[in-house]
Amino acid sequence: MWQLYQFPLCPFSRKVRLLMSEKGIAYDLIRENPWEQRDEFQNLNPALRTPVIHNPERQITIVDSRAICEYFEETVDKAPMINGTATNRAEIRRLIALFDENFFADVTHPLLEERMKKRLVYRQSPDSRILREAMRMANLHLDYIDYLIDHRPWLAGATMSLADLAAAAQISVADYLGGIDWSQHEQARGWYSVFKSRPSFRPLLSERMDVIHPPTHYADVNA
Amino acid sequence: MWQLYQFPLCPFSRKVRLLMSEKGIAYDLIRENPWEQRDEFQNLNPALRTPVIHNPERQITIVDSRAICEYFEETVDKAPMINGTATNRAEIRRLIALFDENFFADVTHPLLEERMKKRLVYRQSPDSRILREAMRMANLHLDYIDYLIDHRPWLAGATMSLADLAAAAQISVADYLGGIDWSQHEQARGWYSVFKSRPSFRPLLSERMDVIHPPTHYADVNA
Ligand SMILES: N[C@@H](CCC(=O)N[C@@H](CS)C(=O)NCC(=O)O)C(=O)O
Ligand SMILES: N[C@@H](CCC(=O)N[C@@H](CS)C(=O)NCC(=O)O)C(=O)O
């Protein structure tokens, strides 16, 4: 059985969980706070980051959410998520990088620092200037999703792909942390509400991160 | 013909150039300073980052170095660089992420900010504290390369892979900017010197970035 090392608000772990669920791959969750830098975790991943996926029976360890997703895409035929021509696949990977890197750096990472780490680790209050800037950037990223959904049924084209899972994973964490203002984003909101009701997404939305509470609309499929 | 939008010290563009050369794919270089945020460049890549690869005849644009490398790996058989079993491929991709993300964030990015952008764009002098920290981190990353090369002929295993190209690309930029102290790193130095004499690497080493000069050992294959 696969073991996924993660914490509930790690967006990269959420992407992996969505992919594994869509593909019907069973896994156990192992709670890991990477900032605690446990020795056993460092043995699995010297870079000390989540997610890591480990299969003790088969002695396989895979590090990095993109490496993990490509691995399951190559080894499990069900529900292909990096699909189509080489050009389609390149467009899927462009958008994965956009959400994993730009959205994360502009929005998810500052929200996690200010609203999660400062609360749980540093015992400080959040910096409201940084929070405002993260929300402003979230708004620009949602504008781009609106634009894509105006032109295509799913973010990367005609079918659902890992780009949608990557985007939904980042957005769900930002939404949990109160960073998303959905008004003015009809298209993005419509696309995201389809995800919220998927069986792969329900377990994520029902989890809570320690003492941090999401806004009431967060897990509401009709919001 | 492919057009590669890049500037000489962009490590991700260097990785793409190494891959294209190894695979024998012809390309033209287009000089792009992403921080100038040209409108034409934003039309190619809304995220305003290099590298971008564009083929006007075939109307293909690919953004993000990992998406570009996976695309050439899928479409050009020569010199496979993400090869082997699914587990081998995952190990290659883990190391690509380590160099593209951790080495870049810890070493290449601060060196580029302090020694290139402050000089060319902000007209400021570099912060020596940040430079020292980047060099300390470079040392730790080289320790890890020493460890890998003690156990394997190439970074990800028995054959040269995109992990080697990704690492060499980052290190070459850090070395250009005076961030690498090669003493104490026999294994990493031996591995890197093999690269320096490869035909794919020679054109990179002979290029210069505007008024910024590399140390004398930089392009010397015997150093
Ligand atoms: N590119 C990596 C990013 C992983 C990453 O940044 N994970 C964060 C958690 S969201 C982490 O472990 N950070 C280290 C820390 O918080 O100490 C991936 O896709 O897996
Ligand atoms: N993950 C991207 C990273 C690209 C990246 O960060 N490029 C830098 C140059 S090295 C950039 O364009 N930064 C924007 C700027 O300098 O304004 C890739 O692999 O292509």
UniProtKB/TrEMBL annotation, chains A, B:
SUPFAM superfamilies: GST C-terminal domain-like, Thioredoxin-like. GO terms for biological process: glutathione metabolic process. Keywords: Transferase. Residues 1-80 form the GST N-terminal domain. Residues 85-218 form the GST C-terminal domain. It comes from the Bacteria. The keyword Transferase applies. The keyword Coiled coil does not apply. One of its GO terms (molecular function) is glutathione transferase activity. InterPro entries: Glutathione-S-Trfase_C-like, Glutathione-S-Trfase_C_sf, Glutathione_S-Trfase, Glutathione_S-Trfase_N, Thioredoxin-like_sf. Homodimer. PANTHER family: GLUTATHIONE S TRANSFERASE D10, ISOFORM A-RELATED. This is Glutathione S-transferase family protein. It comes from Novosphingobium olei.
